Every structure is written in structure tokens, then in C-alpha cells.
């Protein structure tokens, strides 16, 4: 049983994330999409909301689980018996940081490899920050986030604002 973890903020999940989830889910027996509790970032959506968006988005993918974690990814991966971490790469600017993290994680947990999946061209520009900017300013997020969660994102963003 090969388990992989796809970690991120997912604040909120975008079509770019979903593309990586779909592609990674066929490469591994079990894929855990793990929402990170990140003290350094001030999220727009709570961990529970982000997990709910992810659950709704991945309900058709039977080997995908939604979870959250605090602390070191290398430790969490060991707990889950995972052999790989999945990361998406959009541009060269993502690379340096991800390269550093991959090497640090391997040192902390030698059984853990990082698998990088290149973004699909149509999602190259897409990030959760772009989605939040559009939603906060009243624009349409259609084509940026999965259809099933679009209304919820708009409603919750307006409530915030
Ligand atoms: P972001 O706010 O940049 O979307 P996340 O922490 O939620 O950040 O991203 C989680 C993972 O998904 C990271 O590995 C990131 O590189 C990847 N990712 C985010 N957006 C895309 C995209 N459009 N295409 C491919 N990978 C992506």
C-alpha cells in the first residue's frame, strides 16, 4: 500500500490543487490531502472550512482522504506510513523553496521522497491568493475554484468583508 501526502494551506482549494490531487491519486494507493495549521499565515478560512471544501471537491475520488496536521510534515508522514510527499510546481519561483523543503524532509525522514508534479498550463497563474483577491472585490471565481464550492466561497467571503 503506497501512501502519499499532499500538504498545503488550501485557503481555499482551487482548480490547480484539484488537478494535482486527481493526477496524484492515480499514482498512489492512498492520497492524504493534509491542511496545514500554519502559524505564519493568517488564513481567510478556518481549517474546518478548508477541509469541508476539500471533502466536497474530492468526494468522487475514493482513495483520497482529507486530514489536517500541526507540526513537522516529516513526522506526520511517518505516523501515516507515507512514502512520498506530493507538491505542485507552477514556476521557477516555487522551486527554490520546495527544493530546500524536500531536502530537509528527507534528512528528517530518510524514507520520505518528494514527488513534484508540474502544473497544467491552464492553471499556471492560479493560486489561493488570486481567488481570495477576486472574491473579496466581488469578482467571479468561476473557472478558478471547483463549481461545487463556488457559492460557499462567495457567501463566506462577503460575510467576512
Ligand atoms: P497557494 O496559496 O500557493 O495555492 P498552497 O499551500 O495551498 O498554496 O499550495 C499547496 C501545494 O499546491 C503547493 O505544492 C503548491 O505549489 C501547489 N499548487 C498551488 N496552486 C497550484 C497550481 N495552480 N498548479 C499546480 N500546483 C499548485
Task: Please count the beta strands (DSSP E, at least 2 residues each).
Answer: 5
Helices, by number, come to: 6
Low confidence ranges: none
**Which architecture per CATH?**
3-Layer(aba) Sandwich
Radius of gyration: 15 Å
Helix/strand order:
EHEHEHEHEHH
Give the N-to-C terminal Cα separation.
45 Å
Ligand inventory reads: adenosine-5'-diphosphate
Number of domains: 1
Helix content: 40-55%
Strand order of the largest sheet: 3-2-1-4-5
What's the structural blueprint in terms of helices and strands?
Layout: E1 3-8, H1 15-25, E2 30-36, H2 47-57, E3 64-69, H3 73-80, E4 84-89, H4 92-108, E5 113-118, H5 128-136, H6 147-160
Parallel strand pairs: 1-2, 1-4, 2-3, 4-5
The protein binds adenosine-5'-diphosphate.
Adenosine-5'-diphosphate binds at residues 8-10, 14, 16-17, 20, 87-88, 90, 94, 119, 123, 126-129.
Explain what the structure shows:
Strands 3-2-1-4-5 form a five-stranded parallel beta sheet, with helices on both faces. It has one domain (3-120): Rossmann fold (3-Layer(aba) Sandwich), CATH 3.40.50. The protein is built from six helices and five strands, in the order βαβαβαβαβαα. The chain is globular, with a radius of gyration of 15 Å. It has helices spanning 15-25, 47-57, 73-80, 92-108, 128-136, 147-160, and strands spanning 3-8, 30-36, 64-69, 84-89, 113-118. The protein has 161 residues and is of the alpha/beta class. It binds adenosine-5'-diphosphate. Adenosine-5'-diphosphate is lined by residues 8-10, 14, 16-17, 20, 87-88, 90, 94, 119, 123, 126-129.
